[in-house]
Amino acid sequence: MKIYDFDIKKGIYNFEFDDLTTEKHAHPVVEFISATSGTFTLRAKGRTYENLEFAIIDQNTEHKVVAKSCSVSILLVESYNSQLSDFFDRKGILLKNGVFIRNVHEKREELFSEAYHLAVSKDLKTPADKRINTSIKFIEENELEYKDLLSKLTSQALLSDSRLSHLFKEHIGISIKKYLVWNKLRQAIHLYLNKGTSLTDVSLQSGFFDQAHFSNSFKNILGISPSKAYNSRILQSQNNRKF
């Protein structure tokens, strides 16, 4: 696996895989997947799409990717305001049942590149509601378990537990508890990539109970085990980017 970007602040995660096969999973990010050689199969919402060269999968859409004898570029983007959906509207992209597919070469590289540059140049991660934005920043900057975290967030937002939970899911697409797991997962991967420590160490440093807890969360959100993802890790500088 090649890693081109893992930017927690911007919410941009860009990888390249050979022979990728995932289990069913769902993540709180929009996924762009483009075949650089061969074609792949996508299974989502009870449907199977074969011989694909390009697809977009909406956040929190359960799916499985099979890219045997195929290389794919993957871009994950955290999108919590309207700018990405406005981009889709301008491009005539409709996420039907949570996916947009294209099984021809036409414009797929252009779409992938434009989506990446939009994510880099714009702030797609900040939600419109300032209370939810403050909550996200607090989660990212503090290491608290869910019960203690929720009481702090409700106190800051001057909202009840139920009202804050409703607003959070409305703007972010997942519950506060699931976002907490997502944040721990991002922090663990970031530590692993930048500190060179073991998966066991980073999982504990990021607030997971143990490596099994980390591995299960990794698989549920990203579809593969962390050991499979990073056994042949190759880090790339931004100067090596293809677009």
What is the topological layout?
Layout: E1 2-7, E2 12-21, E3 30-37, E4 40-44, E5 47-52, E6 54-57, E7 63-77, H1 83-91, E8 99-102, H2 108-121, H3 130-141, H4 146-157, H5 161-172, H6 176-195, H7 199-205, H8 211-222, H9 226-230, E9 234-235
Parallel strand pairs: 1-9
Antiparallel strand pairs: 1-2, 2-7, 3-6, 3-7, 4-5, 4-7, 6-8
Question: What would you say this structure looks like, in words?
Answer:
The protein is of the alpha+beta class and 243 residues long. The protein has 9 helices and 9 strands. Strands 1, 2, 3, 4, 5, 6, 7, 8 and 9 form a 9-stranded mixed beta sheet that branches. A hairpin with a 4-residue loop joins β1 (2-7) and β2 (12-21). α3 packs antiparallel against α4 (146-157) and α6 (176-195) packs across α7 (199-205). The longest helix has 20 residues, at 176-195. The radius of gyration is 18 Å and the shape is globular.
Q: What descriptors fit this protein?
A:
single chain, 243 residues, alpha+beta, nine-stranded mixed sheet, 9 strands
Helical region count?
A: 9
Mean pLDDT: 90
Largest beta-sheet details: 9 strands, mixed
User: What share of residues are in beta strands?
Assistant: 15-25%
Return Rg in Å.
18 Å
Class inferred from helices and paired strands: alpha+beta
Q: What is the helix fraction of residues, given as a range?
A: 40-55%
Q: What's the shape? A: globular
Low-confidence stretches: 232-240
In total, how many beta strands? 9
The topology string of helices and strands comes to EEEEEEEHEHHHHHHHHE
Spatial gap, N to C terminus: 18 Å
